[in-house]
UniProtKB/TrEMBL annotation, chain A:
Name of the molecule in the record: Uncharacterized protein
Source species: Bizionia arctica
Superkingdom to which the source organism belongs: Bacteria
From TrEMBL, chain B:
Matches recorded under InterPro entries: DUF4325
Designated name of the protein: DUF4325 domain-containing protein
Superkingdom per UniProt: Bacteria
Biological source species: Bizionia arctica
Stretches assigned to the DUF4325 domain: 40-95
Pfam family, one: DUF4325
């Protein structure tokens, strides 16, 4: 007989090993049993789906999913996604139970999905059970891009009536306004018209992202523009999002050499306006520089957008940044319970908005 | 010598950002001021004629572009000369003339 089987030293070792293997097998059996139990009662398709989503963190979208109508719920949803993004965790977005959805929410979804995919983090999701909402999401190309490897670039597709657009280079792109304007005016007035307010709004928002969305440098953060045509109502709606620091954080975070340094603190102490909703109102009305320092600085972008709404060049302007929600058209400014790191703008172009003949 | 005229739409129908480095398709105010406006401004100043800036024919302006062009001009040259020399046409957006005049006034303060 071989030494391996008879010598005490080897016998001990073999028995130790056998025990280990046995215990490992038991554990594995138990594990398999648990997995089997987990899949019990599911069809083969459901089991396959469950298996394919192993390792994903499931995040459920708000049942009423609209950034303009339900900002608190939407910000909560974005925050959950952001946490996963920071930890490089795969995400599965559960959209099945949604009963309300609009383009502001779709813009959030698409932009977040692109952000994940551009960092090679898996992002997946399911369809809403509601057929109309499902169709809306399919039309937005959300699912088309979901299953495709992408960079961080989405181009504007001419002639596509509902779409989202971004530029990989985070620039101010004034040429985009021309294409968007041509198409929007066709939907609204059935002919090309010049809408100067639309171009100003786009420029101010792009400029804001390019200059202020990052605390340390220009041109770091992406912006996203969603353009949605409603031919029935002769209306085009726009959603603009960036995931920068947001208006108020941007004011707070300026270095001492910056023209905006200390602005926020000055407003808070001198005018006794501590809350951001009132600060936003001041900013939009262009009262900030007079109130704070009596000196000039270049912060004319936000008042510039407000002027456009006041002149009836755009309608229904909404802004959300940090913890403030504002329906500028209705002069409503509201402090939110949570914080959106970034700037969100929604506005519409309708038949009643000022426009001029296309002379270009 | 007759007054000199400059049409922004001949520079671009889509004037865009403040600075050149803010985008490849930015059609920036900095570019317009340095490459187009200043040579004509100096010419007008030298011959003691008006420089008429025609703002019509574009699809719109951002505030930063306007401030960079006209505020920037004041930051580089004499405010009174700028005010005396520049004149504007803006039939499509008449309010722009007031805005620009404010930018010219305000720019002096930061000089």
């Amino acid at each position: 007989m071989k030494k391996y089987f008879i010598i005490e030293k080897y016998k001990k070792r073999n028995s130790r090993r056998a025990k280990k293997i046995h215990s490992r097998n038991l554990k594995s059996k138990e594990k398999k049993k648990l997995i089997r139990k987990n899949y019990e009662g599911n069809s083969k398709i459901e089991v396959a789906e469950k298996k394919s989503l192993k390792g994903y963190t499931k995040i459920t979208a708000p049942v009423k999913f609209s950034f303009t109508k339900y900002p608190t719920e939407t910000i909560d949803f974005i925050s959950k996604l952001e946490r996963q993004y920071e930890n490089r965790k795969k995400v599965f977005v559960n959209l099945s139970k949604i009963i309300e959805l609009d383009y502001s929410a779709i813009a959030v979804l698409v932009s977040v999905m692109f952000t994940f995919k551009s960092r090679n983090i898996d992002f997946n999701g399911n369809f809403p059970e509601n057929f109309i909402l499902k169709k809306m999401l399919i039309d937005s190309d959300f699912f088309k891009y979901l299953n495709r490897p992408i960079g961080d670039k989405l181009e504007y597709s001419i002639g596509k009536k509902n779409q989202i657009f971004t530029r990989a280079n985070k620039e101010v792109n004034s040429e985009l306004g021309l294409v968007v304007m041509e198409e929007a005016s066709q939907t609204i007035w059935n002919e090309k018209r010049i809408c100067k307010g639309l171009q100003r709004t786009l420029l101010e928002l792009m400029h804001n992202t390019n200059n202020h969305a990052d605390e340390n440098a220009k041109g770091v953060k992406h912006w996203w523009l969603s353009v949605n045509h409603n031919a029935k109502e002769n209306k085009v709606s726009f959603v603009f999002i960036d995931y920068g620091v947001g208006i108020f954080e941007s004011l707070k975070s300026k270095p001492p050499t910056n023209k905006w340094f200390g602005t926020f603190e000055k407003i808070a102490t001198r005018v006794k306006y501590g809350s951001n909703d009132e600060v936003l109102k001041l900013l939009l009305n262009g009262d900030l520089h007079m109130t704070v320092t009596g000196e000039h600085f270049r912060g004319k972008g936000l008042p510039g957008i407000k002027q456009v709404q006041d002149r009836n060049q755009i309608s229904n302007l909404h802004l959300i940044s940090n913890n403030v929600y504002s329906n500028v058209g209705e002069d409503k400014y509201q402090k939110l319970k949570n914080n959106f790191s970034g700037t969100f703008a929604y506005w519409e172009l309708t038949k009643s908005n000022t426009n001029i003949e296309w002379t270009i | 010598m007759d007054n000199i005229k400059i049409k922004v739409s001949e520079f671009s129908i889509v004037p865009g950002s403040r600075k050149r480095d803010e985008g490849k398709s930015a059609h920036s105010g900095e570019e317009f001021r340095i490459d187009y406006l200043i040579p004509k401004y100096l010419d007008a100043l030298e011959h003691n004629v008006k420089l008429i800036v025609d703002l019509d024919g574009t699809i719109g302006y951002g505030t930063s572009w306007l401030e960079e062009v006209f505020g920037g001009l004041v930051r580089a040259y004499n405010k009174e000369d700028v005010k005396k020399t520049l004149d504007f046409i803006s039939n499509e957006e008449p309010y722009l003339i007031d805005d620009i005049k404010h930018y010219i006034e305000d720019a002096t303060k930061t000089k």
